[in-house]
Amino acid sequence: MALGASVLVAHAGGMVKDGESRDALAKVSLDSLSELCAFCGQLGLAIAVENTLPTAPRIGDTVPELVRMVECLEGDHVGCCLDTSHANLSGDVTTAVGMVADRLLTLHVSDNDGRTDQHALPFEGTIDWGGFMNALNRTRYAGVFMMELRGGPDPEWTLKEAVARFERLLALGYSASSP
Questions:
Q1: Could you tell me the fold of the domain covering 7-171?
Q2: Among the listed residues 87, 78, 76, 71, the one whose alpha carbon sits nearest the alpha carbon of residue 135
């Protein structure tokens, strides 16, 4: 790829508005994702479908729905992007890791209070990071830990803290080769 990318992250689908059929929208989303997967496959690019924000009805707003959709898509280059902040709003992040384990291609790592999508630094919200890292160990995930954070008034501090929080996550015992 000209930009050096190896994974394209896509949301499963859009919002479900009043009066719309979730099943019909899910089919449209799946058709669109199938086309995108075929295109990415031709480029040699992996595609990771992300669990969407569950604060309003959206296609792919739960990890079980995301997994069902990804299972319908063809190709070894197709998998999941687990957004920890989104997963925390719709259930247990540790359980979510187990659900996507064999199709996990990348992560969007951030925290929140369990009520709103804050994309805060890890350890600032309610996610059980020890449980998350233990679950991640069981998957043998060796990919990117992409922090997806909201900026603040001091970007330099945020970047330094992101590094410190990543080191703290690693100190919980993460090893991509763990059983």
A1: TIM Barrel (3.20.20)
A2: 87
